[in-house]
## 1
Amino acid sequence: MNINSAIIHNYARLRKSLFFLPIILLVLLILFLYFNHALNVYGYTVIQKSSFFAINAYLGRYPNLESNFTQFGDCLISLSLLSVFLRYGPKLWEALISASLISAFFSILLKVLFAVPRPAAVFNHTSFLITGKMLLGNNSLPSGHSITIFTTLTVIMYAFMPQRLSYKIMWFLGLTFIGLMLALSRVALGAHYLLDVVCGCIIGYLSGLFGIFFSREFKTWNWVNNKRYYPIFILLFLVFSIVLINRIINDNLLIFYFTFICLISALYKIITVYAKK
């Protein structure tokens, strides 16, 4: 069984009951805020002051590491890192496209709906660690980077889910832990509150599931596997490469070099395949 067939098989085995856990977590989060009188902007920010300062102070001591971690929440980085699967696992890309569009919709809608000010707009910005650009807008909830991280990890998680139960548990817990560590970089950099990240992770997980089920039920993105359309991705990956080169020049983060290598490798492969079609 090749990679794409394995992904199709794994996605086909998923049940809609998987939506229960994230929905229950969202309900519990709302109840927690309700009983703590935090279903308003003021209460929401005040209740998280101690957790924000504690996490920011601890993780903020590693600014370079956290700056690399947070890049996984950038669609440019996540799509580039998975570019190789366009050739070897196009079904993953079908789910990823759907999931990314759904997550972008949730992120934009909820940020506008809640309009929660960023930490730097609420607390004295000299009282905590800020790495990178200071963010002052009213778009803190939910964390868009956390949504992207968990959207991507969910699509990967179920694409390569092991068969044995013990391995499934370790795989699920391992990727969840990695996702949380990456997402908490948003608190470490002074950009988000803890619950922004938690909410973003849950929404990202839901977005990933929606993307998988949508791609399974509908054939909207089946053309991804058609070599005739490779020029679209060749152009897209070339644009990504130019942007990455610019980021390497300006920010010089290790993750950009690794991402660039992945992208160029995928670009070479699909150009070769297209040329031979």
## 2
Amino acid sequence: MSGGIDRIGRIAAVLVGRAVPYTRPGVISAIAKQPVAGRVRVGPLGLENDEQGDTQFHGGADKAVHLYSSAHYAAWRDELGGLPVLAAPGAFGENLAVEGVTERNVCIGDRWRVGSCVLEISQGRQPCWKLNDRFEAADMARRLQDTLRTGWYCRVLTDGEIGAGDEIALLARPYPDWPIARMMDVLYRPCLDATTLAAVLALPLVPGWRTLIERRLASGCVEDWDKRLNGPPR
């Protein structure tokens, strides 16, 4: 820390997208986000001019801003080859392409100053089948889940503006033992250890995650992710 502020990364790109018809009947999506020049206004529900195709599972205050680490792109190119979708930020539908931070070194509840905004990490991403179609790989969503290179979401505590090149300043880290990767590991490996699940419930979870962990603890059963990962019929 220097003067109480730890500069941990920077914004490589800011991206927004419009909801348009997608690859399967009746589905719309805004996953194909594009970089924005200049500064972008950010409010409680996310970036100005950004849309979500399915507001049941995307958007809202707890998923206002989606972040993805630019560091992962090299690993994906090594594994998948030089796919055109990996040639520029936005392959994973992220609003902020970030450098210097990944799921392994950012934690649930972290508060960041980015530009004139204050963001708080709310949850990891649960990848869905839309990535399979975007990458033309039937197991792409499962690959994100298995590698824990999922990305994560922030809520907006203070409105403001963000632009490419802005530094990420860590203001607070109340739960340093719970990086996003550890949380996603509990969800996806999968974990049925009662002590671990009870520790997760002590965190400030979003309602959906709290319900999921409570149900798993009570039932002793792990969730079936197939519908999310594979999607509806083509």
## 3
Amino acid sequence: MLPAPKEIRELTGLTPRDLGPGILESTEPLVLRGLLAHWPAVAAARASTGAADAYLRRFYRDATVTAMLGTPETGGRFFYNEDLSGFNFAPVRVRLDRVLSELERYRGAAKEPAIYVGSTTIDTCLPGFHDENTIDLGGRDALGSIWIGNRTRIAAHYDLPDNLACVVAGRRRFTLFPPQQVANLYIGPLDLTPAGQAISLVDFHDPDLERFPRFAQAMEHAQAAELEPGDALFIPSMWWHHIEALGEFNVLVNYWWRQSPDYMDTPMNALMHALMSVRDLPLEQRKAWQELFRHYVFEADEGTAAHIPEQARHSLGPLDGDAVRAIRAQLLKRMNR
């Protein structure tokens, strides 16, 4: 029997004005109960599913979105096909109001297809929504997105930005794992993914412990919470999270932001480059490069280049937008030889 996840730490009685660095820069997940209870969108959802649907339609302006459609046999789990050569769902471009109508059509059905609109910019598809449903993130340049669907399951994955996930309608269960559990979550391909991020291959509803035995170790470090309309969850950068929508109509709004300058590349580019240039070196050479990465990247400090005159440090000195563009140009030139 798998260990039960621990409960995510909860804070109550907060308002959006209370979202200081202690919360938005936390390195541990936090449940913020009732944080958004004052939102009109939440009030509509608490009234009824129909009211929540009608509230969203108020802001609709002929927007087209990408919807993911799965057969009832998927059980709402958006995943790969049997041999991991493709996926068990079909993405389609469709008007958002048609998606809402399809969700209404299958409401209460014994066998419903899986319908999911993920990571769609709110200001693009529902202009004006933010005017009524506001949140102060302390000047952070956050991207606000909306997620709409029925009973769906999103495999455990990580995101590079910090994430404030806000439940507007329905209920969602989140199961989180710290970054150190990557080896125990059995991650699938890095370059063929259902929605852009690599995912765990473990079915959380029916984990195959013969195929994935270390998942039991991951569950020893798992944290979980079930959120209602008006609740929010802060998910720190790089934490793995599995999300299950439990209601027949679910709406989530989330905000992503990075604690790093805009000119920084995504570290995933460095990882993919290391796969093709470092991973298959002889063992002793890999160890040598591991030491170089430790020295220049993972444990770099003021002493790393202190022996070099400041004007001669180049990429070893403080970086800014111009310095990063120069490094990127050098890399592109070398890779295109």
## 4
Amino acid sequence: MLPVIALVGRPNVGKSTLFNRLTRSRDALVADQPGLTRDRKYGMGRLGPGPYVVVDTGGLSGEDGVDLLMEQQVRQAIGEADHVLLLLDAREGCTGGDAIIAEQLRRTGKPVTAVVNKSEGLSRDAAANEFFSLGLGEPKAIAAAHGQGVHGLIVEVLESLPPVEMPEELPEGIQIAVVGRPNVGKSTLVNRMLGEERVVAFDQPGTTRDSIFIPFVHDDKHYTLIDTAGVRRRARVNEVIEKFSVIKTLQALEQANVALLVLDAQQGVGEQDANLAGHILESGRALVLVINKWDGLDQGQRQQVREEIERKLPFLDFATHHYISALHGSGVGDLYRLVDRAYANATRDLATPELTRLLELLVQEHQPPLVRGRRIKLRYAHQGGKNPPIIVIHGNQTEHVPSTYRRYLVGRFRRALKLSGTPIRLEFRSGDNPYEGKRNKLTPRQIQKRKRLKKYVSRKG
């Protein structure tokens, strides 16, 4: 499983800034004001030698009057974590609140690293010496806002953790993660696909507590179904036993080849459905959108559900929409065909001549915009990876390609290559200009012409 790193500390010490730096995103709200982060926020770590999960938490004051709900969220994050980073403020120095939080962390028995943030402009020894008194080993001085020391910190933390454990001896085949909110029918769908009561299905949210890996064979093909715990809004996660559900679901997505995002047609598309869809899109997994409990709706309600999906999940336009009733089995048998097709498209080999010819046609049909009076030129394309398909496009000024033109290329590539069921990622690369920084040497004739022009201009003046 992926390692989990939790960020804790007093308010306004830079936890969200470090979260954004580690995830290479701007997902966490950052401002020079304490108390902005209240709930736990999860993200996939992109900085460092390997993948991991980062959990951002609200600030703890270390005093008796601390917000109990926020403290509960932080305690759950600590319980989920394999390693805890205690963020400290080099500008304020070691406070009584830091000492109280450090004492609480020592009692958990979790590995803890004291991280002294905002150390820019200070020597590392001067910034860290004051925090040895916390008894958490050698403090690490960083500047999260500028990225100083962050890479070395995360490398050291990941090296201290045990290697990532994968499921034991899973047979070769397509790994299918079944994800969704609680009580949308995930376990019922898994049982229906397997043809037996393999997992507990009950009309109560939170029946499934952990991710369950179930290898099986269907029509002489190997599959592994991953039944995950339902991910509810963090404010509603109260039971201690439920606190791992988000982490387990994110880890299951990292191990899966194809995700089945199960929606409840009778409840509609909620905020948490959109959040889960965003995680699937970020992970790059092939996707089939499964709308369950479809049999109990009339024509008007069905049309309303379709319009709601298009309105709230427009970024999943690549996914096939499949309508089923897991309880009665209608439409479930077709899921294998859709999963096979999505996986085949995600792992397909794309020929360089075909991609280049297609790129030329798309550019002729709709030219890239001008940048400072110069046209962006896209010259050729080739495949850069699979699952999801990565198309690498070479040209000049590619760093200025706008997002609207990227979406145009992705949509047309998908339509022309028939890559339904999988996201497509584009990578743009610009060649080095051999004449950059070099002045053009004038010929003797050009020099004489310049002198005559100067004389002419001076006479006119």
